[in-house]
Design brief:
With about 210 residues, the protein is of the alpha+beta class. Helices cover about 25% and strands about 20% of the residues. It folds into 2 domains: about 100 residues, no CATH class; about 100 residues, Beta Barrel (OB fold (Dihydrolipoamide Acetyltransferase, E2P)). Strands 1, 2, 3, 4 and 5 form a 5-stranded antiparallel beta sheet that branches.
Length: about 210
């Protein structure tokens, strides 16, 4: 049961970690390896059970302690409480180390995203992307979708190396193949969030953060 408690608390910590990250209590300023500190303390928590804390209530025993019997504890052991606390903190910091929407730098493609609301704004700046088809195209009636791994971005005459993937939706008149080099031009935007579905989170789980 101890492992079950710790596993549940770990996932609860991840949920709260996401909440704290989105509300600003946790952020990109934290070290990605910070979660290791509470994690490495977990193996020593059983030592806390050897600490005998004074109790006010005397429990009736059938046999005396002088005979070698150990008085049973009330409630969870100190080791379990400490392990659950450390696991909760580990889960929260683990999410902050690898959030669903990462902390972008100038080398990340998604750092050049426009808001989803500007996807069809003709006045929004455009970029030129250079990369290759990194997934097999999904063919539909009049369109196809696939991922493009981008290694270079040009904007306002300046070209820079970037890392990231973009989900491309285009017509099916041209057949694209896996591994085919491509150069794209258009508006780079963040995937939208709908009322009952987050397309942004759906693509983020696939490692795609741009459209």
């Amino acid at each position: 049961m101890t492992i079950l408690y710790i596993a549940v608390i770990y996932f609860v910590g991840i949920v709260f970690g996401r909440f704290f990250f989105e509300t600003g209590w946790l952020g990109c300023w934290l070290s990605p390896s910070l979660w290791l500190y509470p994690f490495v303390l977990l193996p020593i928590t059983p030592l806390l059970n050897h600490i005998h804390l004074p109790t006010q209530k005397k429990m009736p025993l059938r046999w005396p302690e002088e005979a070698g019997f150990i008085r049973p504890r009330h409630g969870p052991s100190p080791a379990l409480i400490a392990a659950c606390a450390l696991t909760f903190v580990t889960g929260g910091l683990r999410y902050a180390a690898q959030p669903l929407t990462p902390c972008w730098s100038a080398k990340d493609l998604a750092s050049y995203n426009l808001p989803a609301s500007r996807a069809y704004d003709r006045t929004a700046p455009e970029v030129t992307l250079t990369g290759y088809v990194s997934s097999y195209p999904l063919q539909e009636d009049v369109k196809q979708q696939f991922q493009v791994t981008v290694h270079a971005l040009a904007q306002e005459g300046k070209q820079r190396s970037v890392v990231g993937e973009v989900r491309l939706t285009t017509g099916n008149r041209t057949i694209y193949r896996y591994g085919q080099p491509l150069q794209l031009r258009g508006r780079l935007v963040t995937p939208p969030d709908f009322t009952d579905f987050s397309y942004r989170e759906y693509l983020a789980r696939k490692g795609v953060h741009s459209l």
